Structures are given as structure tokens and as C-alpha cells.
Amino acid sequence: MLKQPTDQDLHRIAEANHFVLNDAEIGAFQQSIAKSLASYTTIENLSDSTVRTRDRDHGHAPLPEKNAYGAWAWKTSIRTREDGALHGKRIAIKDNISVAGVPLLNGSEIMEGYVSEADATVVARILAAGAEIAGKAVSENLCFSGGSHTSYPGPVLNPLDTKRMSGGSSSGNGALLAANECDIAIGGDQGGSVRIPASWCGVVGLKPSWGLVPYTGAFPIEPSLDHLGPMARTVDDIALMLDVIAGRDGLDARQIEVPHALPSYSTALEANIAGLRVGILKEGFGWEGLSDPDVDDAVRQATETFRKLGMTVKQVSVPMHLHGLDVWTGIATEGAWSVMVRDNVIAYGSQALQDIGLIDFYRKAKLEKAQLFSPTVKGVILLGHYLAEQTGGVFYAKAQNLRRKLRAAYDQALSEVDILVMPTTPTTAPRHEPEASLGRTMEIALNMMPNTATFDATGHPALSIPCATVGGMPVGMMIVGRHFEEQTILAVAKAFETQGISQSGRQSDEA
């Protein structure tokens, strides 16, 4: 039960907000506050009707000898029916998504001891479609990394070359798919976290249009960047899963733009793609100090397949793409600090369903265990707090305005072509650096995002598909489409896949 604030509390709070109160004012405010607190007592005693833990086998921690790549966070075998569109499929769920009765670490030691009380919408839909939830896949520490080196309790290894990263922050997903330990995985993507591991592990990963897949029940970072999406070894399985998880749930405020009627994504794979227009995005290649020319060349060469399929291919230019990562940074830094640090993952100003158990646990854990935050999280906290102190959110607000300009620039290009194509990541999977300095640890967590993060900011659907190998490791090609036209991306990706393009890398011969 909330206690009445003391007079000293009110003086302290007034001072923190740059005004002073005299004794008479304190007395008047105390009377008003006492009346308001009666409502909070009522709220405390009312049920919010949240669905609690289901009666099921909650699984177990993975055995080390059966977790060779460090990719499983928790093992389960949860089924609720023996038929449906996903019957026979084994699904891995990124460990920032709630599965009732199962621990949720989100890659961080500070979450040790937390157990989700209810299924996320995507989990409920997957189970209703007859799939088996095979377990939770390790994520990077609070999802603040595109590598696979910051996760608790240890790094995730790439099955194609265990000296290399699997990519993040859905690092466990990529590794489990590459190792054939699950059929489909659900990841989160705020800066590229579905597409980066897809690129580095040689699998397919789709970040859908913003809001298409409900985020309800997943650990938020910044609502205007939050996405969930499927990862799989084949385009067919991506489409199959999207048919199951896409659509409004009435609980997620991110879904304001989502159409009420959606196509069958699996049926769309059969569409005739001849005559579609492909735009090779000039600015998506040749990132100074980042891009591997061999990766750029491999993606350009792969686009010749589109010509063979009867599509037209030309280079297009979106100069503002060069500033996409800057706009994303302006949103992600202060946005993540406000949501995850200041506001304890509460969606203020939103009618979205709130996870009270998660909010309360995280609030306390953050206060007691902040020293355990990873360097990447601490970096966001330091800069986000500083910016809020110095500018009061002005740069965040301007970045949100620039998002509209960035989105319009891509929309203009997509009025002239049907899809945009570029490398998903500027390089293939880099090597783990276990002795890296603090600065290097943060650098290798963020230096693979120049093409991916911008489409989290604009909300365009973007899919990574393997298109070649360089040095024995897979190269991801990213296909970007118009908002809520995933069916076009998937049809193109399926046609590309059927041409026999390599679906994975091999063990690197550069040992």
C-alpha cells in the first residue's frame, strides 16, 4: 500500500522540479494527495485480468553437452494441440519474449530469477497452430548488440565456424537454425536483430512492417522501433509462420497502421514475379571503413539472378540512406533510455497491455544489480541520460520528425521500383574477440548496422536471404519492400531461392 508522502518528500520533489513550496502550500497539497491516493488503493485491490501461468511442463536449463553453441537459454517441449498449420514444427523463441512459466533472461544477469506469467501473443498463436515450443534462444544482453558476445551467461558461437559470431541480438536463433536444432525461430528486431544473425548464419530472416506482428508480451526497447519477426532455413517456412503470427491482437498500440485484412503469405509465394522492378540501392554499398568489397560484389552479382527471372534491374539512389543510422541513433538512444531505464519498460501514454510482473521485477533488479549491465547497455544509459539532461529530448523529437522524411525518401524510390536490394551486413560474420577492450566490445556490437537499422526507423519490411559465400561464410542480401507488402518480398525471395543459391556457408578454411 502506498504511504502518504512526508512534508520533506514534497519539498525534495519540488526542489528537483525547480520550484519551492511554503508550509501552507505543503498542507494544501497533502490534503489533495491524500484524496488521490485513495484511488491508488482501489487500483491495487482490483484485478487487471492478466492471464497467469498455464498448467504445463515448464522445461529445464539446457545441459552444457547438448548446448554446443551456447544458443539455448532454456529447453521446453510445449504443445497444446496435435494439428494446425505449424503441426510438426519445432520453434525457438528469442529469450526477450514471454512464454508462461518459463524464465526470461533477455541475455542479462539482472533478469536472473524472473519467470513470465503469460504467453506473448506470438507464442499463443504459434501454439494454437499446433507447433512445439522447443525452447528459448539466447539473446544479446537486453538486446543491445548486433554481435553475439555480450549475452549472459556466455557468447553464442556460429555453427558454421565456431570462432565467429552468429550475429545479434537474436544470436541464439541464428545459431540454432544453422545447426538444424529448430525449424523456425521468432526474433526481435530494433536495429537489425533478425536480419544480422540471418546474414551471418546463412538463414532467412524477415523484419515485417512495423506493427504487422504484435509485440505484446515481448521486452520493449523503444516502441517506435520494436518489431518481432520469423527466421527459418527456407522462405516457405517464413511465409508459413507469418500467416500464423501476423495481424492485430487488440492489445498492441504499435499496430495502428496494420490493415484489418491480410493476404495469405504462403499463397503469395506462387505469384508471378516476372516484370517486377528491382532497385539496387547505391548508398547501401561501400560503407567507408566497414564494407568488405567482396561482400558488395557478391550481392551485386546475385542481383543478376533477378534478370534471369524476368525482372528488371537498375541502380537507384536514396541519398538520405547515408543518414539513416544517424536518425535511428537519435531515436534509439534516448528512446531506449527513457523506456528501459527511466520508465521501467512501462508504455506511458499507451493503451497497450502492460506486463505488471515484468515491470515490477525489472524495476527492482535494475536498482539492485545495475553494475551487471553490459557495456553496451551502460553506454546507452550514460548518453541517453546526458542528452535528456542537456536537451530535454529535443534531439529525440527532431529524430522522430526526420524519420518521416527518411520514410518518404524510401517511399519515393519504391514508387519507381518494387523492391530495394543491398547487402544485409557490410561483412560476413567476424571473429569473436574474447580479449577485446571495453571500447572494442562496444564497437563490434554496433558496426554491422548501417543498412539494417534505418528500416527499423522507417518500418519498411526487410528480409535477409543468403546469396553467396565469401571466405566460406554466408553473405546476406537484404530485400526491402513497401509497407505491408510482405507478399512481394516473399515471392521474390522464393523465386531467388529456387535458383539454387547457397543457403549456408561452410566451415571456414581460414582457421
What does this protein structure show overall?
It is a single chain. The chain is globular. The C terminus is likely disordered. The longest helix has 23 residues. The chain has one domain: Amidase signature (AS) enzymes (Alpha-Beta Complex), CATH 3.90.1300.10. With 511 residues, it is of the alpha/beta class. Helix 6 packs antiparallel against helix 16. The chain contains 16 helices and 13 strands. A hairpin with a 2-residue loop joins strand 4 and strand 5. The strands form two sheets. It has an eleven-stranded mixed β-sheet, with helices on both faces. It has a two-stranded antiparallel sheet with strand order 4-5. The chain is 36% helix and 14% strand.
Write the layout of secondary structure elements.
Blueprint (H helix, E strand, L loop, with lengths): L6 H10 L6 H23 L26 E7 L11 E5 L26 H8 L3 E6 L19 E2 L2 E5 L5 H8 L5 E5 L6 H7 L2 E4 L20 E5 L2 H11 L19 H4 L8 E5 L11 H10 L1 H5 L3 E5 L7 H19 L13 H14 L5 H17 L2 H23 L2 E5 L14 H9 L6 H6 L3 E9 L2 E8 L5 H12 L14
Parallel strand pairs: 2-3, 2-6, 9-10, 9-11
Antiparallel strand pairs: 1-3, 4-5, 6-8, 7-8, 7-12, 11-13, 12-13
Helix pairs in contact: 4-5, 6-16, 10-12, 10-13
Q: Indicate the mean pLDDT.
A: 95
Order of helices and strands: HHEEHEEEHEHEEHHEHHEHHHHEHHEEH
Query: Helicity, in percent?
Result: 25-40%
**Biggest beta-sheet profile:** 11 strands, mixed
Query: What is the number of independent domains?
Result: 1
- CATH topology (level 3) name: Amidase signature (AS) enzymes
In total, the number of strands is 13
What ranges have pLDDT less than 50 throughout 5 or more consecutive residues? 503-511
Helix count, per DSSP?
16
State the CATH class. Alpha Beta
CATH architecture: Alpha-Beta Complex
The CATH superfamily appears as: Amidase signature (AS) domain
Based on secondary structure, the structural category is: alpha/beta
Strand content: 5-15%
Order of strands, widest sheet: 1-3-2-6-8-7-12-13-11-9-10
Q: Kindly report how far apart the N and C termini lie.
A: 61 Å
Organism: Metarhizobium album
InterPro entries: Amidase, Amidase_CS, Amidase_dom, AS_sf
Protein name: Indoleacetamide hydrolase
Domain Amidase: 71-490
